[in-house]
Specification:
294 residues; alpha+beta; two-stranded antiparallel sheet; 12 helices; 9% strand
């Protein structure tokens, strides 16, 4: 073992002679953090030239903002993947007649709910949008413009569950649309503005109420607190009785009765006694006093 210095921070550390012989660069680091920072300074990550998406013609940079493809942007790449999963799906080209009752018989694994299940699976990206009517985004449903019952038995599940035949609605407006209380002309078109808030906005951007507050003393406070923990303890300590008074009262009245008089819990009396170093009456003291056995 030899004592050598780190290439970045110049800190001394031990390293084996065999490991030093094997190293190709001859650079030695005390930790992984030092090695990564040094390599990022010497050989930074190359960012390629701006590229144009072949589908939407949007300009993006490969390797930046998690762009993984050299020909398509992230949004177009996701859509292509969804189309691929649909086309490769076993039931995408299945006909609706196989899902309907024929001669009062229906296969056990085929039913009406399975069509809706395929719909939500294939068009899961539409669930990121809010309701097209009211903008409610907690829970949305995919409603068919042309109902499933209106299609012939020769139609495939892919045509029924296509994006052009779907609306993103909340449960209330979905019910109104199915009962024909809401017409198609009253529903606005689906736009990117109606999309839900992103995960980054939900998780990482703090709202005004979530911002950290500071106490009068300068220390941080919790969400709905009025004072910090130190100031709260000091203010509580101001309400404490004196040591002489508490020592006298503890041996005169029981702990529960004393706590009611001071307007606190009985455990607070125990805390005060521990803080002042006052000894409390032992267990069974008040019963013995009641029967005059002391």
């Amino acid at each position: 073992m030899k004592i050598i210095n780190c290439k970045l921070c110049d800190a001394s550390f031990k390293k084996g002679e065999y490991v030093m012989k094997i190293s190709k660069t001859g650079n030695h680091f005390c930790s992984l953090k030092c090695s990564t920072t040094y390599n990022n300074i010497v050989a930074p990550k190359k960012i390629g030239p701006p590229r144009e998406c072949k589908i939407c013609k949007a300009i993006y940079v490969f390797g930046k903002h998690k762009h993984k493809s050299k020909t398509f942007c992230n949004t177009c790449l996701e859509q292509k993947k969804m189309k691929k999963t649909k086309s490769n799906s076993k039931f995408f080209h299945e006909k609706v007649g196989e899902f309907r009752v024929v001669n009062n018989e229906r296969p056990k694994w085929l039913n009406r709910t399975s069509i809706c299940a395929f719909n939500r699976k294939w068009n899961s990206h539409l669930l990121e949008y809010a309701c097209q009517v009211c903008g409610y985004d907690k829970h949305v449903e995919l409603a068919h413009i042309k109902p499933v019952s209106a299609f012939d038995n020769s139609e495939t599940l892919g045509t029924i569950n296509s994006e052009n035949n779907l609306l993103v609605l909340c449960p209330n407006h979905h019910w109104e649309f199915d009962k024909q209380n809401l017409s198609l002309l009253e529903i606005p078109q689906r736009t990117l503005c109606s999309k839900k808030r992103t995960i980054a906005k939900k998780k990482f951007i703090k709202t005004k109420s979530e911002k950290t507050k500071t106490c009068g003393c300068g220390s941080p406070m919790n969400g709905g607190a009025v004072k910090c923990r130190k100031c709260w303890r000091i203010s509580r300590r101001d309400t404490w009785p004196s040591k002489e008074e508490l020592q006298r009262r503890v041996w005169e009245t029981p702990c529960l009765q004393l706590a009611k008089e001071y307007g606190v819990l009985d455990c607070s009396i125990n805390i005060w006694c521990r803080a002042y170093g006052i000894s409390k009456p032992p267990r069974g003291y008040w019963k013995k006093k009641e029967f005059g056995k002391l």
